[in-house]
Automatic annotation (TrEMBL):
Catalyzes the reversible formation of acyl-phosphate (acyl-PO(4)) from acyl-[acyl-carrier-protein] (acyl-ACP). This enzyme utilizes acyl-ACP as fatty acyl donor, but not acyl-CoA. The gene is plsX. Pfam families: FA_synthesis. Keywords: Acyltransferase, Cytoplasm, Lipid biosynthesis, Lipid metabolism, Phospholipid biosynthesis, Phospholipid metabolism, Transferase. This is Phosphate acyltransferase. Transmembrane segments: none annotated. One of its GO terms (biological process) is phospholipid biosynthetic process. Homodimer. Probably interacts with PlsY. It comes from Desulfovibrio litoralis DSM 11393. One of its GO terms (cellular component) is cytoplasm. InterPro entries: FA_synthesis (IPR003664), Phospholipid_synth_PlsX-like (IPR012281). Pathway: Lipid metabolism; phospholipid metabolism.
Amino acid sequence: MGIKKPVIAVDIMGGDFGPPVVLPGALAAARSSNIDLLLVGRKEAIELELKQHDCSGVNFEIVHAAEVALMNEQPSDILRRKKDASIQICCRLVKEAKADGFVSAGHSGASVACGMFIIGRVPGVERPALATIIPTEKNPAILLDVGANVDCKAHHLFQFGLMAHPFAQDLLDISSPRIGLLSIGEEEGKGNNLVKESYDLFKLAKNINFVGNVEGRDLFTGDVDVIVSDGFVGNVALKLSEGLAGSLARVLKREIFSSTVTKLGAWLSKSAFKRFSRIVDYAEYGGAPLLGLQNIAIVCHGKSNIKAITNATIMAANYVRKGTNQRLTEAISANEELSRYSKAIKH
């Protein structure tokens, strides 16, 4: 008996570009990775876009969603008032076991809220965390949380590390990923109270490879595989990194085209520049897994292109095939006593 194909619900209306980008990205993923699709959104818009593409060899179903979650709306309002929003319907399909996971480039706050309250959290997990993949000098690494939880307690950060462990194993193909805690110094005892208390929990954790504190300058060395922080610090670190990369690229381009000699050097190095661009391109990694839900959820950048949607959908299917969420659940369960002990401490 063959292995059941993953069924992924894709929010076709999500993102800045909607169906013209999301739909072909999902179709490409389904064709290359043997995935069944539930295309969620306004039926007429999806059918119109489908006419522009070759759908042979792809098994899909259109699920009509009359509404769209707008970026200027509060997640709580979307959850309460927009029952027919495409992101809500994606989550209900997963909750009802009609889909194994969902992908959305739409309202990230709505994705988090609908995921928590419709799909539900893994038992023992208080707060799901957004994990993003960052390039380093060696191999990609995972940074979390990058914005789902701006105010955290020690057991939240501890759970973030536990949840990231199986995802890093499957994503990075590492049996024992190195987990570090983002702080202002490498030594034990450095950092604010949140970091110090989290450190104490990580030291006692079972079945994970905690390597201690990591400073901001070490994010991109590749010496750790998972970097844990609260969502406020993590989001600042991510946006700072994105901004710095963009500024450096613009400065480099300006300098390259400043003279004939540098233009010639750029032409001779164009293959290296192409490889560098691929390494730092977020589209290579698809989207950010929302860890801690009972099923797979991938939240994509609003400006995602076709390649990013394709890779995010493939990522979701791969996690389904590998049973990543089941191992996440086991990691939380194995360290339940530590989490419960930390929750009892008055912060």
